[in-house]
Write a structure and sequence with these properties.
This protein has 2 domains: about 10-220, Collagenase (Catalytic Domain) (3-Layer(aba) Sandwich), CATH 3.40.390; about 240-340, Jelly Rolls, CATH 2.60.120. Helices cover about 15% and strands about 25% of the residues. The chain contains 5 helices and 17 strands. Helix 1 (about 55-65) crosses helix 2 (about 120-130) and helix 3 packs across helix 4 (about 165-175).
Length: about 350
């Protein structure tokens, strides 16, 4: 009898299931929000265990840190009750919130799990922490071209150890990323984010193989300018202060491809605030806060004039972080101005 196939339960939020593809003239294909679940580059993530033996905890901690060789992030394991990533070892499968989704208390209430290990080895730790830093399942990439034998897949995953309904199988294996809300490379058959599937699960008889380590593309992707480049600015670098309602815009520039600029401003009163760039440089903006540099408020690409970014939101009092990147992280550079207004 063949060994049961373990497949990760994907905890992507309902808001992300149907992000349609967007074309803008002859420009590069992009999703509506380029990787909404990525953490700000350089983030120090606090991680705690809600249960588990010391042996299991040590395995998780030592295995997870492999990502840090390539991604400009920090993992701080401890017992902080406000940890963003909270790990359990219960018998309900292997799963994780995807990136900053773990901050959504509607789906992941405080003091409850954002990650779980129903089985444990180094490969599943690497896989689930891939989700935790914002990566999606490789087998559901629209660039993968996998043609599923749907009745066979659905029947197989009804049994142990997954015990999924047809709806869960379609959600986790068959159909989700056809709308591509992710930043991605070409399909990578060696990715740690790809599980093993037997040939009979596909219509063309092609199997995937089990991956136990980060692939070359995994390492290159998380280290790239699109994701967590170690050469880019991080939260430990200089953050430029912006005065609300300044008479003139603050001048800045993306001097190197993949570079990101960080700004902060203080909203003293509740009300509407507009953060906007100006100039000829095509920019992408993310806004975090209040008083939390990992909590995404909003992001924008081209809502301002020409290719400029603009976010207008009703904000509560607190400090906010603004992250600016070029829309073309591979080669884009250029000067711009940025200004914050209150209404």
């Amino acid at each position: 009898m063949s060994e049961p196939i373990h497949v990760c339960f994907d905890r992507i939020l309902p808001r992300d299931l149907y992000r349609p593809l967007v074309f803008s003239g002859n420009r590069t294909l992009r999703a509506i929000a380029p990787k909404i679940s990525l953490w700000p580059n350089g983030t120090a993530l606090k991680i705690c265990f809600l249960e588990g033996s010391q042996k299991d905890r040590d395995l998780v901690e030592s295995s997870a840190k492999e990502w840090l060789k390539y991604a400009n992030l920090k993992f701080e394991f401890g017992d902080d009750p406000d940890a963003q990533i909270r790990i359990g070892f219960q018998n309900d499968g292997a799963w994780s919130a995807v990136g900053t989704d773990c901050l959504q208390q509607e789906y992941f209430p405080k003091n409850e799990r954002t990650m779980n290990f129903g089985w444990l080895d180094e490969a599943v730790v690497l896989h689930e922490f891939g989700h935790a830093i914002g990566l999606a399942h490789e087998h559901q990439s629209p660039k993968g071209g996998i043609k599923w034998n749907e009745p066979v897949v659905i029947a197989a995953l009804k049994g142990p150890p997954n015990r999924w309904s047809e709806e869960m199988t379609r959600h986790n294996v068959i159909q989700k990323y056809s709308f591509n809300q992710i930043i991605g490379t070409a399909f990578d058959p060696d990715s740690i984010m790809l599980y093993y599937f037997p040939a009979e699960w596909t219509l063309n008889g092609v199997a995937t193989h089990e991956n136990e380590d980060l692939s070359k593309l995994d390492r290159a992707f998380v280290a790239s300018a699109k994701v967590y480049p170690k050469t880019g600015k991080s939260q430990d670098d200089v953050i430029v202060d912006l005065a609300v309602n300044a008479k003139t815009a603050t001048s800045a520039s993306i001097g190197l491809p993949g570079e990101e600029d960080l700004f902060r401003f203080v909203a003293k009163n509740s009300g509407y605030y507009s953060v906007a760039t100006r100039g000829k440089t095509d920019l992408v903006m993310r806004l975090y806060g209040p008083d939390d540099r990992t909590k995404l408020v909003d992001e924008d690409d081209d809502s301002g004039q020409a290719f400029n970014a603009r976010i207008t939101r009703k904000l509560v009092p607190g400090e906010y972080l603004v992250q600016i990147r070029h829309a073309n992280p591979k080669s884009g550079t250029g000067e711009y101005g940025i200004r914050v207004k209150s209404y």
